[in-house]
């Protein structure tokens, strides 16, 4: 199952995602037409405090990070489409196979959006993610706010731009991003996806370190071979799934030490490695960064924070 695509338009995945998605997306879209004022610094600070409280109460840091990354991670620097504009809240984008499970994240944020109507969706998604990283023990990310929200579904880019966890790998760029690529190497795929966004090899490795948080679920991406493990069976939050690290609500460099242990055969077999995670070990440009981050948590956190900031501003128009 490691080879399953996370963003392929799979019928089963689409139908699984459809029911919760409609429930979550309808009220979100109604609010989208409300007139927006620019949020003041005080409002942003209050809103951020609510995000921090939510992360602590619901143990939901990982899914909030994934929501923001999937909103921004479909940016195409050539056509200047996609990006961190809040368009993931619209049904057609939320239904992309790679977004399975994310209606839950939008739903978690709905009460905060209602309380702070002047904070836009794009800002709220990115704020919740950066706050989740910090609350989990990661770096403080130097965030910028004032993104203009995508107004309607016309901003939704074609499906296929988000990365797949395993073969078959798609082009992820151009007019038909879902088309199967000639180069089926996971590192080629990662460079097509992140290169399309204008991000570097270092950004790829640092950002992959976000998998120190969270889990893959059989009934969402289908990318996890195990339904549940000793690290996930009791939650907190949703039970089950397969995590990359033992303490999957803690943000540090464990993802990188785990990859090296997995290669040496000394890592717990219940921990997850996707084909795209393992590519970081085999590619000669990626590997030295894995080794560096495994040795030096501060270096990882500094590079992660810089890459996360870049990711969070891709394609955003600021007021
Ligand atoms: C490098 C290419 C990437 C691939 C192929 C990939 C793939 C995946 C897959 C298959 C899942 C499991 C989803 C599920 O079943 O619910 C996942 C989860 C996750 N991803 Fe990635 N991802 C990538 C990059 C990133 C980046 C750049 C970030 C953030 C900066 C990120 C953050 C996360 C988080 C936090 C989760 C856990 C979500 C949860 O526990 O609900 N990923 N990813």
UniProtKB/TrEMBL annotation:
GO terms for molecular function: heme binding; L-ascorbate peroxidase activity; metal ion binding. One of its GO terms (biological process) is cellular response to oxidative stress. Its EC number is 1.11.1.11. CDD domains: ascorbate_peroxidase. Residues 151-188 are annotated as: Disordered. Keywords: Heme, Iron, Metal-binding, Oxidoreductase, Peroxidase. PROSITE patterns: PEROXIDASE_1, PEROXIDASE_2, PEROXIDASE_4. Belongs to the peroxidase family. Ascorbate peroxidase subfamily. PANTHER family: CATALASE-PEROXIDASE, THYLAKOID LUMENAL 29 KDA PROTEIN, CHLOROPLASTIC-RELATED. This is L-ascorbate peroxidase.
């Amino acid at each position: 199952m490691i080879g399953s695509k996370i963003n392929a338009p799979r019928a089963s995945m689409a139908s699984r995602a459809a029911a919760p998605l409609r429930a979550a997306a309808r009220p979100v879209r109604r609010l989208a037409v409300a007139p927006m004022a620019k949020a003041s610094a005080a409002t942003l600070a209050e809103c951020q405090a609510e995000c921090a409280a939510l992360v602590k109460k619901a143990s939901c840091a990982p899914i909030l990070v994934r929501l923001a990354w999937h909103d921004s991670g479909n940016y195409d620097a050539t056509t200047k489409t996609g990006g961190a504009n809040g368009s993931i809240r619209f049904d057609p984008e939320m239904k992309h196979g790679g977004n399975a499970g994310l209606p839950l994240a939008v739903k978690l944020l709905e009460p905060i959006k209602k309380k702070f109507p002047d904070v836009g969706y794009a800002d709220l998604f990115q704020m919740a993610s950066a706050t989740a990283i910090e609350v989990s023990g990661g770096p403080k990310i130097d965030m910028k706010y004032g993104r203009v929200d995508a107004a309607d579904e016309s901003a939704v880019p074609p499906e296929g731009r988000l990365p797949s966890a395993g073969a078959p790998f798609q082009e992820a760029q151009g007019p038909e991003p879902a088309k199967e690529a000639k180069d089926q190497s996971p590192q080629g795929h990662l460079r097509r996806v992140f290169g399309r966004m204008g991000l570097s090899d270092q950004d790829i490795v640092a950002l992959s370190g976000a998998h120190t948080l969270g889990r893959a679920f059989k009934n969402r991406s289908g990318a996890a071979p195990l339904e549940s493990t000793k690290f996930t069976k009791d939650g907190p939050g949703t039970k089950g799934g397969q995590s990359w690290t033992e303490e999957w609500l803690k943000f540090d460099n464990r993802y990188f030490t785990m990859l090296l242990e997995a290669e040496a055969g000394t890592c717990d077999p219940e921990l997850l490695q996707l084909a795209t995670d393992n590519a970081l070990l085999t590619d000669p440009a990626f590997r030295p960064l894995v080794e560096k981050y495994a040795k030096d948590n501060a270096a990882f956190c500094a590079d992660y924070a810089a890459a996360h900031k870049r990711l969070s501003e891709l394609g955003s128009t600021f007021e």
